[in-house]
Amino acid sequence: MSLRIATAPISWGVSEVDGWGVQLPPERVLAEMRSLGFEATELGAQGFLPPAPEDKAARLAEFGMTAIGSFVPVIAHQPGIDPLPRIEQELRDYAASGATVLVVCADSEQTGYDAQREPLTDEQWSTLFTNLDRITAAAAAVGVTATLHPHVGTVVETKDDVDAVLRGSTIPFCFDTGHLFLGGTDPVQFAAEHSDRIAYMHLKDVSLDGMRRVADGEISYFDAIKADLLYRPVGQGDVDIRAILQSMVDAGFDGWIVLEQDKVVLEEPADGTGPIEDARASVEFVRALVAELESSRSGAAR
Fold this sequence. Notes:
Blueprint: E1 4-7, H1 26-35, E2 40-41, H2 53-62, E3 66-67, E4 69-74, H3 84-97, E5 101-106, H4 122-140, E6 145-148, H5 159-168, E7 173-176, H6 177-183, H7 187-193, E8 198-203, E9 205-206, H8 208-215, H9 221-226, E10 231-232, H10 241-250, E11 256-259, H11 275-301
Parallel strand pairs: 1-11, 2-3, 4-5, 5-6, 7-8, 8-11
Antiparallel strand pairs: 9-10
């Protein structure tokens, strides 16, 4: 398959957000990832793997895994704050860990992802665009692809935000099908119209009912995840995964598809149970669908 399928520790509840449930030990998470046939993963939140990049790579290798990249929240919209030192620190680590994709999140300066942010001023938008382009160039200079991750509760969340970045910056996107859907961007339309701006994918599925309950204020974003009401195993929610992957296959996309189902783990589950069950359902569905779509494309080409 030209579409490469990987995973991320957040599917096992490993998060950078304080108070985000039980953080499962890396040996368990990595062993379960490998048992599902994954060979690559994102690095996860700081503290999940050893701090030294060489040690990160070594720990992954113990489980037959390699590093793709990491999710890095930075404040990029404030004129008085330079995000480059944090980005450059991450890029130095990449050289030793073998990671190649930087996933940038435009931090809103709020705590958690439920806090409401103020609309950006024109000056803040201009600063954001400039910094995103600076990050793109800094990453490219060391052979790393920088991508922007639209995300609930951040500076780039809504359809208007996404459209503004498409117009104002050259940074490629981490195409997160769930967060785009939650923010009001149609991920099917985005895949069809902007495949040239997609360098990396977070493939998520979302319950429309859960999304409406969050949007109506009935339940917070965090509590919806904790109650397993929002994200579903890929193929079991309301995102048209088939149409999205069809567009990516048709566009010749050859980047990573990272299967993500944001989880909050309330207590360490028994062996063979817990997050691995949903991760298994997702990867089996996506592997079968990708094989079908690429086979159909190959047949049509002949």
